[in-house]
């Protein structure tokens, strides 16, 4: 759409309505007579403006007691929102965040401190504790060795009976 | 359509520069009323409801053409006004702000309605859907759609493609019949900005209409090839 039409477009669209009827400005009229593209585009824009004007409605009044119904709606909305809106209140939400952080910090400290000290070992006699631990390992290895030997024997017996 | 639209300068505000003083929306009688509502004055809120209820109803009814829906959405609009008036910053007139909320509520309603319809239709079997589609086609052929209805349908579809601001501006201009000068006073923007925004919005409508026509054409082609 060229400048002469652009400059006068809004005035023109208002002017084509009955109540604001106005002649098309000379400059725009001259251009439209010479430019087919602008004429075609203007027709489209005019048809869209007419389509939007079809959304006009005359005076429509609500039924009596509208204000009371609005207040009911407001109360309903308030009641629905009250549980969740508490979490959206900045002060309350900030308190919840601080409490959660404090809880996380407390749990974290507890976990770290309980991991660093093995409660099963006697703290007063470290040498004895290490010896006890070594003895336990040797016993376990011995037991594992016996079990493995028994399993090996069983497999050999199975193979021999299969060959027969 | 000419391809020059994108490169040419935007409309001038007019040969003679206007020296109209801008309306300060913070000092009007309406602003005093808003401040009272912001201070939780229920009587002031009642005054706002009584002052604007007819306007809000007429906007909603213009878009939806249904009294029950208009009542429901109007209640929703005023509830929204009640809860969000504390954020009203006096940059535009109260009417412009209420107008925007009302139009947005209508479009929200239309969107929800369309989603509900889609969910409802997805519950049908393919056979049912085909039967429904065919029966609609028969009705369409026997009884051509009323021109006004078609116009309204087109307007709603096109306006849906615009931003909230563009939609409100176009509706205030075309439906409410405000001039560029009045719009400038109502929104707090200068006349040239209004003209540019309106021009861009109209260009978007032209493009949206072209896409819509292409889509409809495509669907008809698909239907035809399906019949073959």
List keywords for this structure.
heterodimer, A: 164 residues, mainly alpha, 6 helices, B: 228 residues, 2 domains, disordered N terminus
Distance between the termini of chain B: 34 Å
- Total count of domains of chain A: 3
Major sheet of chain A, described briefly?
A: none
CATH topology of the largest domain in chain B: Rna Polymerase Sigma Factor, Chain: A
What does this structure look like?
- The complex is a heterodimer of chains A (164) and B (228).
- By secondary structure, chain A is an all-alpha fold.
- Chain A contains six helices and no strands.
- Chain A folds into three domains: 3-53, no CATH class; 86-116; 126-164.
- Helices cover 78% and strands 0% of the residues of chain A.
- The longest helix of chain A has 38 residues, at 126-163.
- Chain B is globular, with a radius of gyration of 22 Å.
- The relative contact order of chain B is 0.11.
- Chain B contains nine helices and no strands.
- Chain B has two domains: 23-123, RNA polymerase sigma factor, region 2, helix turn helix motif (Rna Polymerase Sigma Factor, Chain: A, Orthogonal Bundle); 138-228, Arc Repressor Mutant, subunit A, CATH 1.10.10.10.
- Chain B has helices at 29-38, 42-64, 67-84, 94-122, 126-142, 147-160, 164-174, 180-187, 191-227.
- Chain B is mainly α.
- Chains A and B meet through helix 1, helix 3 and helix 4 of A and helix 2, helix 3, helix 6, helix 7 and helix 9 of B.
Describe the structure concisely.
The complex is a heterodimer of chains A (164) and B (228). Chain A is mostly helical and 164 residues long.
List the helices and strands and how they pair.
The complex is a heterodimer of chains A (164) and B (228).
Chain A: H1 3-15, H2 26-34, H3 36-53, H4 66-88, H5 90-116, H6 126-163
Chain B: H1 29-38, H2 42-64, H3 67-84, H4 94-122, H5 126-142, H6 147-160, H7 164-174, H8 180-187, H9 191-227
């Amino acid at each position: 759409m060229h400048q002469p039409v652009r400059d006068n477009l809004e005035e023109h669209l208002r002017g084509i309505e009955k109540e604001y009827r106005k002649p098309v400005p000379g400059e725009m009229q001259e251009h439209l007579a010479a430019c087919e593209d602008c004429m075609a585009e203007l027709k489209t824009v005019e048809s869209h403006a007419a389509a939007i004007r079809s959304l006009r409605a005359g005076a429509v009044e609500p039924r009596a007691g509208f204000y009371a119904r609005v207040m009911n709606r407001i109360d309903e909305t308030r009641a629905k929102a009250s549980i969740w809106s508490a979490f959206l209140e900045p002060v309350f939400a900030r308190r919840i965040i601080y409490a959660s952080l404090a809880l996380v910090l407390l749990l974290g400290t507890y976990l770290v401190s309980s991991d660093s000290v093995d409660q099963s070992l006697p703290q007063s006699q470290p040498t004895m504790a290490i010896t006890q631990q070594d003895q336990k390992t040797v016993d376990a290895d011995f037991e594992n060795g016996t079990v493995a030997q028994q399993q090996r024997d069983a497999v050999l017996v199975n193979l021999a009976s299969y060959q027969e | 359509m000419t391809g020059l639209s994108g490169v040419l300068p935007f409309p001038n505000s007019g040969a003679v520069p206007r020296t109209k003083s801008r309306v300060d929306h913070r000092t009007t009688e309406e602003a005093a009323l808003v401040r009272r509502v912001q201070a939780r004055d229920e009587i002031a809120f009642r005054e706002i409801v009584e002052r604007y209820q007819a306007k809000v109803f007429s906007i909603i009814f213009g878009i939806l053409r249904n009294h029950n829906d208009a009542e429901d959405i109007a209640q929703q609009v005023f509830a929204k006004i009640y809860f969000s008036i504390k954020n009203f910053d006096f940059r535009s007139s109260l009417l412009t702000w209420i107008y925007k909320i009302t139009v947005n509520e209508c479009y929200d309603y239309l969107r929800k309605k369309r989603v509900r319809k889609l969910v409802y239709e997805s519950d049908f079997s393919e056979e049912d859907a085909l039967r429904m589609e065919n029966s609609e086609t028969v009705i369409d052929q026997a009884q051509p759609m009323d021109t006004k209805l078609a116009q309204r349908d087109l307007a709603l579809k096109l306006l849906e493609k615009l931003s909230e601001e563009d939609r409100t501006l176009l509706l205030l201009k075309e439906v409410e019949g405000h001039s560029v000068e009045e719009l400038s006073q109502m929104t707090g923007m200068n006349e040239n900005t209004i003209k540019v925004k309106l021009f861009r919005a109209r260009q978007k409508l032209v493009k949206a209409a072209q896409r819509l026509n292409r889509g409809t054409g495509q669907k008809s082609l698909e239907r035809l090839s399906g019949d073959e």
